[in-house]
Design goal:
Blueprint lengths: L2 H30 L7 H24 L9 H13 L7 E4 L2 E6 L3 E2 L1 H19 L7 H20 L4 H18 L3 H20 L2 H11 L10 H13 L24 H33 L4 H25 L17 H20 L10 H6 L4
Antiparallel strand pairs: 1-2, 2-3
Length: about 375
């Protein structure tokens, strides 16, 4: 499967998800419109505008030679870190639902969404510059670990554990593909898991979410309400769904039916057919993106495309696992489908960057695979 066919298939899958997202935002807009000074039309028009802006950016970025970004990689990374710090500065930060993920600079947006792309860019730049030393401790593990650790911690302490988890997995995937020593990655994953457990057990709200995840029915009137109603939505939808617009749980019973839990609304209205269709589209996108990445001859393009695929795949996988109660509730939107401007625009922009990589990097006949290099980097 050549890279041109892959990028075409990726765009078809992305457009299909985007259209489905707009339809479902329109369907769930009645629930969201219960908020003061809002209407269903407001939500669909805003989301359509965000989608249009995202597509324009993606087309522009796809025509742009991504190699030029290397000249500004450190500047872009620094700006993204500063924007994340502003989430803690009174006068700039905007707090919603007890979280301060947003800032207001005349326009309200989430710096963490921009930071995901900036992080992928700086790590791809670092490993390309030091590609001969990717198996060493300092230049192959410690320094790039600090590069993605700084924004990761800033996002984590915004109380955005979902984005932090997706970003952490993206960072580890990039380091794996770049050739970092696998045993160092395993150790860091274990340490990270221990830190996460410690942070969870020290916070009553997070522990309540764990209890609610283990027994959603017992917490169906409290912390487990979203996941419990989500399961009822899937059950009511059955195989083929109750029909577009015919869902009942979105009318105030399912909180955030137009954002974090829109997958449950799809399950109710489109049934198993619709939800499996979404899983298939994300699988096709991820497969095509990885084929493009692994066929790229140049290291920077290969790593950049891999990271961009990860920042789409991991949030999608985590969102669907949360909504289906496989994981505890973390509060993460479903890419291309959930309502939200910053996430939608930045995720579509990632599609544009993958397109730029495919257009401006020569492909090799046999796909690159780092496993042999990684196995050779055994512990001394």
């Amino acid at each position: 499967m050549n890279s041109r066919l892959c990028i075409t298939t990726l765009w078809i899958s992305f457009i299909a998800l985007l259209v489905l997202g707009l339809v479902m935002v329109a369907s769930t807009g009645l629930c969201a419109a219960m908020q003061p000074d809002e209407s269903p039309e407001t939500f669909i028009w805003k989301q359509s505008l965000f989608a249009l802006l995202g597509i324009v950016f993606a087309v522009m970025i796809g025509s742009f030679d991504y190699h030029r970004l290397r000249n500004y990689a450190w500047l872009i990374y620094g700006v993204s870190v500063v924007l994340l710090i502003l989430c803690y500065v009174p006068g700039f930060r905007v707090e919603l639902n007890g979280e301060h993920r947003w800032i207001n600079l005349g326009l309200r947006f989430q710096p963490s969404e921009l930071a995901k792309i900036c992080l992928v860019l700086i790590m791809a730049h670092w490993y390309t510059t030091h590609r001969e030393m990717s198996g060493t401790f300092w230049r192959g593990f410690a320094i790039p670990g600090m590069l993605f650790g700084i924004p990761l911690l800033l996002i984590l302490f915004e109380k955005d554990m979902g984005t932090a988890a997706a970003l952490a997995m993206t960072g580890f995937c990039l380091m794996f593909v770049a050739g970092a020593r696998w045993w160092l990655l395993v150790y860091s994953i274990i340490i990270g898991a221990l830190v996460l457990i410690s942070m969870t057990t020290a916070n009553d709200n997070r522990m309540e979410r764990i209890y609610a995840w283990l027994d959603p029915q017992a917490y169906s009137q409290g912390a487990g309400a979203q996941q419990w109603i989500a399961m009822l939505s899937f059950a009511r939808g059955g195989s083929t769904g109750v029909g577009l617009g015919e869902g009942i749980y979105k009318y105030g019973k399912l909180p955030f039916a137009h954002t974090d839990f829109i997958f449950a609304a799809i399950g109710e209205e489109w049934g198993l057919v619709g939800t499996l269709g979404i899983v298939l589209l994300f699988t096709v996108m991820t497969t095509c993106g990885l084929i493009i990445a692994l066929k790229m001859e140049e290291t920077f393009g290969r790593l950049l495309a891999t990271g961009l695929v990860c920042i789409i795949f991991w949030p999608a996988a985590l969102n669907m696992m949360v909504v289906t109660s496989i994981l505890p509730n973390t509060g993460l939107p479903l890419p291309f489908i959930s309502y939200g401007g910053t996430n939608l625009i930045m995720t579509i922009a990632a599609i544009g960057l993958i397109t730029s990589v495919q257009r401006h990097t020569p492909a090799i006949r046999s796909s690159y695979w780092p496993l042999r290099q990684l196995l050779n980097n055994t512990r001394p």
